TrEMBL record:
This is Mitochondrial import inner membrane translocase subunit TIM14. The chain crosses the membrane at residues 6-25. Keywords: Membrane, Transmembrane, Transmembrane helix. It comes from Trichoderma harzianum (Hypocrea lixii). It comes from the Eukaryota.
Amino acid sequence: MASVMAWGAGVAVAAFLGRAGFVALRRSRGGVGAMGKAFYKGGFEPRMTKKEASLILSLR
């Protein structure tokens, strides 16, 4: 019975460490995350256009 509990604990620890490693790997790659999608990549025009205003106000 103790060996079954040890196996279960080992599997749980392995799953936890595997997920933590996967999350760390994904974060280290630096790709576009949730925060990266919130910002418009590009500069401002000399005068504000309708397109730029809609991007700032999050309108479609």
